Amino acid sequence: MVKEIERAGFPVAHICTVTPISMTVGANRIIPAIAIPHPLGNPALDKDEEKALRRKIVMNALNALQTDIDGQKVFEG
Amino acid sequence: MRLELGKINITDIQFAEESKIDNGVLYVNAEELKPLVLEDEKIKDVYFDIARPGESVRITPVKDVIEPRVKVEGKGGVFPGWIAKVDTVGSGKTYALKGMAVVTAGKIVGFQEGIIDMTGLGAEYTPFSKTLNLVMVCEPIEGVKQHDYEPAVRKAGFRVAARIGELARELVPDETVVYETQTFKEGIDKYPDLPRVGYVCMLQSQGLLHDTYVYGVDVKQIIPTIISPTEVMDGAIVSGNCVSACDKNPTYVHQNNPVVEDLFAQHGKTLNFVSMIITNENVYLADKQRSSDMTAKICRMLDLDGVIITQEGFGNPDTDLIMNCKKIEAEGIKTVIVTDEYAGRDGKSQSLADADVAANAVVTGGNANQLVILPKLDKVIGTLDYVNVIAGASDHTLREDGSLEVELQVITGATNETGFGRLSAR
Fold first, then answer.
1. What is the C-alpha to C-alpha distance for residues B284 and A55, in angstroms, rounded to an integer?
2. Interface of A with B in 15-74 (CB under 8 A)
3. Which of B205, B285, B356, B357 to mutate against chain A (most A CBs within 10 Å)?
4. Of the N and C termini of chain A, which has fewer Cβ atoms inside 10 Å?
5. Per the structure, how many domains does chain B have?
6. Residue B324 C-alpha, separation from nearest chain A C-alpha, in angstroms
7. In tens digits, what is the pLDDT along chain B, a chain of 426 residues?
8. Integer Cα distance of B236 and B173 in angstroms
């Protein structure tokens, strides 16, 4: 999916937990997620903390989309 | 460590008034075993049944498969942390009932439980069509949570297996095999010219009913460590897994790990089997990094020349596998990985979710997506209620004529990644 959308000319930020797989499959802008069962959140946190965490991940992804890169990059955020 | 494993060959199982082993026949009084299972208030009811090789019987949904054993000499007892206290096991003398297994089955725990067919095409794929199976079909109480029910059935299986193993305590084994590893210094002195080989055994620990336990400890919480393979023979590692049936390691596979068996067969001849190393497959990237770093470090500290790595499960554990392989190879140690494939029903897709050039020696247990039609069998032990929803099945699985259209994924042990299954490829 990541590669096909990029082939069509759109930059893609791939949010995923296992960043090495994302590297292997050839994503360019890689955003580390939290864990495989809950990539975009953390049920151990309370609501406000989790909202902040989610916002951080999304902002990191939006930032990555606007960043020029010259190869595969993991945006640690 | 030195363990004498006495093998008692079981040639049949029959229900009887008195539980005993006589002349190779296991007689079981099911009424005696029942209270042992019902000790756990999460289990409402249980019944026992027997499935023999060649019979027209399908067992499903299968949770665990366990070989009854009893410790007759040496420290500790079988299944430390569950049945016995946590004393270190793996030395002395243990008896195993060969040719049979205790199978836990019944109402579903997760959605990834399996099928064992005793005849037909399915029987060719599962190694447990060759064992006499004492099946315990459990029924949970109303409203029980899955994560409460899974340990209830798991532990009940160990209690039954240990009780049956106990019947062998006073018997004379048909055959005895001695497994012995040396300490590191002894090994170097004894086999100075043999390559030092280790075995990295990856244990499923993704959580949410995908778990394994070592001496009662949840493997998610361990950092990689060394263990004597003889400890594992005494039940130090047990399965708590409801992961896809084809490539999970039931407790039986840990007790009879074929990689361990083959390494022992070559120990002192073509190689020096230095140690078994256990590691996990967690769902946080930091855990994957830490565990693979530690595993590679241990291999280096043991001065290994070669390592066999086996995986359990598939998907994100493919990354743990590749990280282990890459990092161990980076230490200058040769690796062979043993895995299976999810290459699509036509076999044309990428087999693993991750890959690296360091993984240049791979043994496969087969393609779990391969589609097979299992014939209708005369008898079902358990229930077909869930056969359309277990992993590897679909809405079309149960067909009008009673046959099943399934991927190999549903068959217990079909693509086992320790080589316990019957498939491979060249």
1. 20
2. 17-21, 24, 32, 34-37
3. B285
4. N
5. 1
6. 13
7. 999 999 999 999 999 999 999 999 999 999 999 999 999 999 999 999 999 999 999 999 999 999 999 999 999 999 999 999 999 999 999 999 999 999 999 988 888 899 999 999 999 999 999 999 999 999 999 999 989 999 999 999 999 999 999 999 999 999 999 999 999 999 999 999 999 999 999 999 999 899 999 999 999 999 999 999 999 999 999 999 888 999 999 999 999 999 999 999 999 999 999 999 999 999 999 999 999 999 999 999 999 999 999 999 999 999 999 999 999 999 999 999 999 999 999 999 999 999 999 999 999 999 999 999 999 999 999 999 999 999 999 999 999 999 999 999 999 999 999 999 888 766
8. 22
Residues in A touching B358 (Cβ below 8 Å) = none
In a domain, B227, yes or no: yes
Assigned domain for B7 exists: yes
**Is B135 in contact with B105 (CB distance < 8 Å)?**
yes
CB contact under 8 A, A24 and B323: no
The DSSP code sequence of chain A is -HHHHHHTT---EEEES-HHHHHHHT-SEEEE-S-SSSTT--TTS-HHHHHHHHHHHHHHHHHHHTS--SS-EE---
Domain boundaries, chain A: 2-74
Instruction: Region of A39 please: left (phi>0), alpha (psi -120 to 50) or beta.
Output: alpha
pTM: 0.95
What are the structure tokens assigned to B182, written together? Answer: 């040396």
Question: Residue B153's closest CA among B215, B265, B66?
Answer: B66
Given B242, B246, B299, B325, the catalytic residue: B242
Phi and psi (nearest 5°) for B259?
A: -65, -45
Residue B210 included in any domain: yes
B242 is known as an active-site residue: yes
Which residue among B283, B318, B323 sits closest to A37, beta carbon to beta carbon?
Answer: B283
Give which of B55, B84, B58, B57 is closest to B69, Cα–Cα: B84
Is B255 in a helix, a strand, or coil?
A: helix
Q: Which residues are within 8 A (CB) of A43 and not within 5 positions of it... i.e. 6 or more apart? A: A50
- Judge if the upstream peptide bond of residue B250 is cis by omega within 30 degrees of 0: no
B422 within domain boundaries:
no
